Amino acid sequence: MSVVLAVELADDERTRGREPMSVSPTTEPIIAVELNLPGELVRRIDALAAQSGTDRSTVVTELLRGKLPTALAAVLAPVHEDFRKSGMTEADLDTLLESELEAHRRGQ
Asked: How does pLDDT run across 17-45, given as a tens digit for each residue?
């Protein structure tokens, strides 16, 4: 399945130093990006869009910016809070996950 998404150009002389979403879509250039995605991934993007009241383009743009759609952020909020309360650092978590992955690979 091929999906065409409109993504705002962020590194243009006229937009440099401003948030891409603050640029007027009528005066600034838009880049269309064509992605070949498996149907299941498109359905997941559509579900996130429906949950957050947006469209595919917005969901993908927010994901690329490192932002989670509102509904997904709400689902993960308790996990993030538990991690924060645990006192673990990201390095500690990386070490734990690498250790567990290695154990799994060894069949333990």
From this structure: 545 444 444 556 667 777 788 888 888 88
pTM of the model: 0.43
Three-class DSSP labels, 11-35: CCCCCCCCCHHHCCCCCCCEEEEEE
Do 63 and 27 share a structural domain?
Answer: yes
Query: Residue 61 belongs to what domain range?
Result: 1-67
* Separation between Cα atoms, residue 72 and residue 52, nearest integer Å: 9
Question: How many distinct structural domains can be found in the chain?
Answer: 2
Residue with tokens 């600034």: 28
Cα separation, 32 vs 82, whole angstroms: 39
